[in-house]
Amino acid sequence: MSILASYRARFVEGLSRALDLPGAEIEKLVKPADPQHGDFSFGTFVAAKAKGKKPPEVAVELAKSLSLEGLEIAPAGPYVNARIAAMPFSREVIDQAYAQQERYGHGTSGTGKTVTIDYSSPNIAKPIAFHHIRSTVIGHSIANLYRSQGWKVEGINYLGDWGKQFGLVAVGFQEWGDPKRINDVAHLVDVYVKANERAEKEPAFDERAREFFRRMEANEPEAMKLWQQFRETSLSDFKLIYARLGIEFEHYEGESRYQGKMDAVIDRVTATVGTKVSEGALIVDLPYAENEPPVLLKKNDGSTLYATRDLAAAIDRQERFKFDRSLYVVATDQSLHFRQFFGVLAKMGLPWADRLVHVNFGRVKGMSTRKGNLKLLSEVLDEAHSRALTKVKDNIAAGRIETDDPAKLAEEIGLGAIVFGDLKNRRTTDYEFDWDQVLDFEGHTGPYLQYAHARACTVLQRGGGVPASYDASLLVLPEERALLRQIATLPVVFQDALAQNEPSLVARHLLEIAAAFSRWYTLGNQQREHRVLVEGQPALQAARLALTNASAIALRAGLGILGIGAPQQM
Ligand code: ARG
Predict the structure, then answer these.
(1) What is the domain-level CATH number for residue 170?
(2) Measuring CA to CA, how many Å separate 426 from each of 111, 287, 347, 514, 516?
């Protein structure tokens, strides 16, 4: 339980004892208080009714009778309010941060539970679009959140490695590909783009691509060999990117895994929900809304589809992992697909169908090359690096930052900028990507958080490191109390973010922590006695260093959940 939750529980328990009412009932009546009145508020209306007294009267009596450690209790009209006292709260927060380090805010609510998270899932030999960055970073952060609360996470990179697009790349490659460059993704993407254009203009070419895919579905060795090579080329390129971002998947698998298992799934759908032939294609026999495209299981040429494979994959995942929850971190564009195939599983009578969640996200604009093509993901990361390096060099020259290794720092800042720039947005909203904005050291950005963290580390070091002992009761400035409160809230935010599959809650709370830290930290610019390294007052300095340390730990823990590095020096 988080520290904040434990104070709340203490208040609930005290009320329940005093009123002789079950805790579960009180629980529902304890609300967050208006900040000027405290932290928690209890309305006495129900209790007053039972006693046949007026609520304000009951509030006064109740407040008088409650004596709870670390809580200041006061009546206000019909309410009893509780405020968390500075002590021992301040010490508890700092000690907990110090004890848990980068695991600060972690918990055990998910112990014994399993979640599968389908994320990143790019398509092989196709240009990788920014929506894959979104899926990658949102999915990674959600995976970290679940892990942090004790869940067993099965992260699945469900590669788009099957379908007609391989036919396109293959015939394109046979036509104008350079066999020496079969290991070069950029080349394969060029071939794909060209082949796609040609297929649109030339039906015969398109037919050759289809024919190639049919050969793949028939498992023809020669076709499969070429497919395998394309797959490996793309995969090794993706893996470089994941390594750069510090992402590891429990499983790399893809749509091809379900090749040969399609008929069994189709039979199951036929036996339960029913199927029928419509315009030569096999569809799931469901009532469809007007204009709603039906769920296609087989095209008129007999080849299977995305939905067929997703049905098979969901069943397979349940069999293998017995998941309690199964998430799909995929763009909102695919909402219909998910709604439909989840619906089919439910209609099939599978009791776990309601554990599937489409964790959807909106679009990003402003991520194209001048020609309007989407950039390769690696190009975006390289650009982030080089832009960050320019900034780092400028800041070093201006004496604003320090580092022994500018290139390494630029990599952390550049990636942090991209990842945070994405995660700070509510995932379902569309946003405009802007290089200057994500890299602004003073904006609501990754670099700003990294900078705040590095500041804290530097002060700590200058003050001789983490103090051996400290007296938290010396932290009496309102800015100190506000900062402690923000740090204490982080564990609660982790839980909320998990419940909503919403990393932006963590991102935004880190901005609050950093802002509270810098409000406090910069007080010393005006008044020497407010400095962390306050002259001639070793006990006060120790307390402030302890708070500085707790701030750094909280920022580090939160950045860790988001998958962003926290350099010590910058
Ligand atoms: N490969 C797909 C795409 O890039 C995303 C796959 C998402 N996962 C799934 N189980 N459908 O659009």
Answers:
(1) 3.40.50.620
(2) 27, 34, 32, 19, 22
Helix (H) or strand (E) holding 30: strand 30-32
Q: Please check whether residues 130 and 184 belong to one and the same domain.
A: yes
pTM over 0.90: yes
Query: Is the Cβ–Cβ distance between 124 and 158 less than 8 Å?
Result: no
Domains held by the chain: number: 3
264 and 228 inside one domain? yes
What are the tens digits of pLDDT across the range 244-290?
999 999 999 999 999 889 999 999 999 999 999 999 999 999 999 99
From 118, 121, 295, 337, the mutation candidate for ligand 1 (largest count of ligand atoms within 8 A of CB) is: 121
| Portion of the chain with pLDDT greater than 70, in percent | 98
Kindly report the protein residue whose alpha carbon is nearest to atom 4 of ligand 1: 122
DSSP one-letter string for 108-145:
-TTTT-EEEEE---PBTTSPPPHHHHHHHHHHHHHHHH
Query: Which residue bears the tokens 């306050």?
Result: 534
Domain boundary among 65, 84, 103: 84
What average pLDDT score do residues 314-321 get?
98
Residue 344 lies in a domain: yes
Query: Could you tell me if 186 and 303 lie in one domain?
Result: yes
User: Which CATH number fits the domain that encloses residue 24?
Assistant: 3.30.1360.70
Which ligand 1 atom sits nearest the alpha carbon of residue 337?
11
Among 28, 64, 34, CA closest to 46:
28
Judge whether 164 lies within some domain: yes
Pocket test for ligand 1, best of 308, 330, 338, 360 (most atoms within 8 A of CB): 330
Task: Tell me the residue range of the domain where 183 lies.
Answer: 114-359
